[in-house]
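Subject: Sanity check before I submit

Could someone independently write out the structure tokens for this chain? I want to compare against mine line by line before I put it in a report. The sequence has 63 residues.
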Amino acid sequence: MSVFFFLIPLAVFLGFAGLVAFIWSLKSGQYDDMDGAAMRILIDEEEQIQHTSPDETQNRDSK
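---
Independent answer below. Compare away.
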């Protein structure tokens, strides 16, 4: 029974700490761009290579 005097305040403190961390993440903009990460995973690396200039491609091929 005496363990409850330790566990209940600990649970309240951890719940409050989680709530504070969640509110901080909302205010700091952690959830502003939810679709950006989902779309970035769909972009192929080949598209990024095609956007390089011809000089960069020649330098890469000569190595």
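---
OP: Matches mine. For the report I'm noting this point. The radius of gyration is 25 Å.
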